Amino acid sequence: MTTPLVEMDGDEMTRILWKMIKDELILPFVDLKTEYYDLGLPKRDETEDRITVESAEATQKYGVAVKCATITPNHQRMDEYKLHQMWRSPNGTIRSILDGTVFRTPILIPSVKPAVKNWEKPITIARHAYGDVYKSVELRADEPGVAKLVFDGESGSHKEVVIQNFKGEGVIQGMHNTDKSIRSFAHSCFQFALATRQDVWFSTKDTISKTYDAQFRIIFDEVFQEYKDRFDQLGLTYFYTLIDDAVARVIRSKGGFIWACKNYDGDVMSDMVSTAFGSLAMMTSVLVSPDGKYEYEAAHGTVTRHYYKYLAGEETSTNPMATIFAWSGALRKRGELDGLKDLVNYADQLEGACFDTLGEGVATKDLVALMEGITPCPVTSAGFIAAVRGHLAQRLGA
Ligand code: NAP
Ligand code: MG
Predict the structure, then answer these.
(1) Is residue 72 helix, strand or coil?
(2) Ligand 2 centroid to residue 269 C-alpha, Å
(3) Does residue 130 register a pLDDT over 90?
(4) Domain 1-109+291-398 adopts which CATH fold?
(5) What ligand is nearest to the CA atom of residue 9?
(6) Which CATH architecture has domain 113-131+178-277?
(7) Nearest ligand atom owner, CA of 304
(8) For 252-290, what is each residue's pLDDT tens digit?
(9) Domain parsing of the chain, residue ranges
(10) CB-based contacts of 264, cutoff 8 Å, min separation 6
């Protein structure tokens, strides 16, 4: 390796898996170079969360990061870890510094069939993670009256429209988005499409929302002009359609594209798509900034329930696939950027070794329950990683 990978360690069961993956699957085969940031909750508390900010800044500097799942503190965690403050979600902090979009992609294996039988390739959901209903303000109209939407420009301009003349009680909501955020979202989507050679589908409800949703479509069309030539060269397409039409087409499709969604659509549709593909433990996630910086991680959390079993001395059967693929994804990207063919090959072989292992039915318990057409052999996390190591050594002739 030439440029270091930004390594963000995390919490609980995934922190345990992290070390196992490094010790068994990476360090024996790769001359690993990382800049290490411990985003485990104790360290975040000790540094007043500066470590999270520093790790995001390092990602801006170097371009590629790999992140372990981390605890987002709540009241219960405040007591459990004796925290000084209820620190913000590290993912939220990193996302806002990188101004990035999260792309979630399932890992498919032949023995776990998607609930939608014509899906052959993964569907990647890109969720716009800013604004709309997630940053809205709401009011209860508790008597008859008039609700208005008002805008006072800095220049002294004034616009207002009546939302509703209430004859009785009701509810009101005001939400917003910014051109800047929508533009960043569009750039991230097109960047990721070029990097992974997939088409982009984008959907809103611009027939009904003629100013708000229409603005998303206008900005996507504008930004796409910067990418059109590169899309043409690779034979890729950008396709806009209404959200209802998109839902129908997604269900009938074979998969193999990026579905860019507004914030709420992405929240809802990503849960539907990931469940239909099989298991949260097989879902990868990558944060892509508009200027092409990448942070790879598993989509699942720190698997707390398994961690408490581990602390009680039990061997757990936690699925390390998504965390392994976060590493392979990050190392492959680093290899591509630095022109290191061996590193790209290693990443391919590591993923191949995982598929070899699952192809023999050797799997953690979560997958055993989903496998068809194969006799599964349930193993612990350590057992799974050992089996992958065997295949990897064979593939690399090591
Ligand atoms: P979770 O860690 O994803 O686990 C939820 C359940 O899903 C687990 O109890 C387990 O089910 C199953 N599961 C998830 N990943 C698995 C794997 N790799 N192998 C096998 N089973 C797996 O979600 P959570 O329990 O809601 O959250 C735990 C902590 O993670 C929280 O503190 C939260 O803040 C944090 N979190 C972090 C991230 C992130 O850093 N990206 C994302 C989400 C949540 P069974 O118990 O039935 O086996
Ligand atoms: Mg959701």
Answers:
(1) coil
(2) 8
(3) no
(4) Isopropylmalate Dehydrogenase (3.40.718)
(5) 1
(6) Alpha-Beta Complex (3.90)
(7) 1
(8) 999 999 999 999 999 889 888 988 998 889 999 999 999
(9) 1-109+291-398, 113-131+178-277, 137-174
(10) 132, 133, 134
